[in-house]
Design a protein that fits this description.
α7 packs parallel to α9 (226-236) and α10 (305-317) packs across α11. This protein has twelve helices and 16 strands. β9 (360-361) and β10 form a beta hairpin. With 461 residues, it is of the alpha/beta class. Bound molecules: 4-nitrophenyl 6-deoxy-alpha-L-galactopyranoside. Residues 57-58, 207, 210, 245, 260, 271, 286, 293 line the site of 4-nitrophenyl 6-deoxy-alpha-L-galactopyranoside.
Length: 461
């Protein structure tokens, strides 16, 4: 009898796995992908017990903290100034259209009510409030989409066994055979909670399979039970997007492709050598404002607001979203440095958002003077580097042919150009595919605005 049950279970599991391997996204999912890509800008939140020591979210691993001693940080988790609505309002005013928050990071602490483990904000802390629940409500009210980061790695659970390459110095006893299955069941129980307790979830953002990257890429879905998890998510919420920060080529069942600290295709962080850029899936690049994800007391290395705006523009020019990180303080507030940058980005987007939201990668590749995005009949030229604009402000751009396969090349017909910020007309002429623009003084003086001056080049429909 028992054998039969096992056989049937295995068969069903294989079927479910098969379902994701031949994954066909539901219509809701395809619509959500389009919405996601149109959103272009989201804010990442790394928050948990690690905000208290203030040395980033890897502190447990980096300082080899004892897992039980670390867990006592839950006793002092009391972010007295936490105000979900204040977060969401500041983020919305910053021009972001979604929030991705760490529901549970590698330290294993959950920011949400979880029957699967008492080590969570509601049951395990004096604060006793459901952070994700309050955030979900505020997001609903403000019309911001909510995504959940979820770690595959755990540095505190004994059933995370066998171990990967991290979490060896936290003093945990070794696990027993069968623990890995238990750990997988735990993750599925938590994913079920995340997808049933908080209304519509925009995406689940997985992270951590790299912990066992001594195993080949093909082995990863089996090791982690990815297809099972993806199928579960899509069954509970077909419109929920699945992403995984594994730095590998996407697996079936994933709806977005993630790049870490990397404008797609540039591999600047060195995490993704040869990670090709999917032409099928929406893309997302995550990046820090300083050099830390979780709150870091001593990290003053904030990028300037202008640099962050330019980073957003550069990711958009590759057809990718920017997921820009903030690490809230232990008292629940967002650092002033982060708020100031949000405000500046919001101001810039209020004027220039048309060239970011709902756009695609521009048809003209990166140039010394900047990058392009496009939407409908408009090509947006982003002047990121005024020094590279030739003297006299004469800018020449080469348009690609409408139908490159045709025998006689045809080019889009330019209708006119103007500064996006204030509508100042930009004189332009066209000869076949070559468009010559004479930039007005306002564009070159860097006054409108300094981070990136956008020229809207309109074509005839
Ligand atoms: C991962 C997390 O570990 C990190 O804490 C943060 O959440 C970030 C967004 O995602 O970053 C990683 C993961 C793996 C490697 C480097 C950064 N790695 O394998 O080198």
């Amino acid at each position: 009898m028992k054998r039969w049950i096992l056989t049937i279970t295995l068969l069903l599991a294989a079927l479910v796995a098969g379902a994701q391997e031949g994954y066909v996204p539901a219509p809701e999912n395809l619509a959500a992908r389009e919405q996601f890509a149109a959103d272009r800008f989201g804010i990442f939140i790394h928050w948990g017990l690690y905000a208290q020591p203030g040395q980033g979210e890897w502190v447990m691993q980096q300082k080899n903290l004892d897992y039980q001693e670390y867990a006592r940080l839950a006793n002092s988790f009391y972010p007295s100034k936490f105000d979900a609505r204040a977060w969401v309002r500041a983020i919305k005013a910053g021009g972001a259209r979604y929030i991705t928050i760490t529901s549970r990071h590698h330290d294993g602490f959950s920011l949400f009510r979880s029957a699967a483990s008492p080590y969570n904000a509601v049951d395990g802390t004096p604060f006793g409030r459901d952070i994700l629940g309050e955030l979900a409500e505020a997001c609903r009210e403000e019309g911001i989409r909510l995504h959940f980061y979820y770690s595959h790695v755990d540095w505190g659970r004994t059933d995370y066994w066998p171990r990967g390459r991290t979490g060896h110095g936290t003093g945990r006893p070794d696990g027993k055979p069968g623990d890995w299955a238990r750990y997988q069941a735990f993750m599925k129980a938590q994913l079920t909670e995340l997808l049933t307790q908080y209304g519509p979830v925009g995406a689940i953002w997985f992270d951590g399979t790299w912990d066992k990257d001594d195993q080949p890429r093909e082995a990863q879905p089996g090791i982690w039970g990815l297809y099972d998890q993806y199928a579960l998510i899509h069954r509970l919420q077909p419109g929920c997007l699945v992403g995984n920060n594994h730095h590998l080529q996407p697996f079936p069942g994933e709806d977005i492709q993630i790049f870490e600290k990397d404008v797609p295709g540039e591999n600047e962080a060195g995490f993704s050598p040869g990670q090709y850029v999917s032409r099928r899936l929406p893309l997302e690049t995550c990046q820090t404002m300083n050099n830390s994800w979780g709150y870091n007391l001593t990290d003053r290395s904030y990028k300037s607001a202008d640099d962050l705006i330019r980073y957003l523009v550069r990711t958009a020019s590759k057809g990718a979203n920017l997921l820009l990180n903030i690490g809230p303080r232990p008292d629940g507030t967002l650092p002033e440095e982060a708020l100031a940058r949000l405000e500046a980005m919001g101001k810039w987007l209020e004027i220039n958002g048309e060239s970011i939201y709902g756009t695609q990668a521009g048809c003209i590749p990166e140039q010394p003077w900047g990058v392009t995005t496009q939407k409908g009949n408009v090509l947006y030229l982003h002047l990121l580097n005024l020094d590279a604009v030739p003297a006299g402000g004469i800018l020449t751009v080469e348009l690609p042919a409408v139908d490159p396969a045709a025998r006689r090349a045809r080019f889009p017909k330019v209708r006119g150009a103007a500064l996006l910020a204030d509508g100042t007309p930009v004189a332009c002429g066209q000869k076949k595919g070559t468009v010559t623009l004479t930039l007005p003084a306002a564009a070159l003086s860097a006054a409108v605005p300094s981070a990136d001056c956008v020229i809207a080049l309109r074509f005839q429909p």
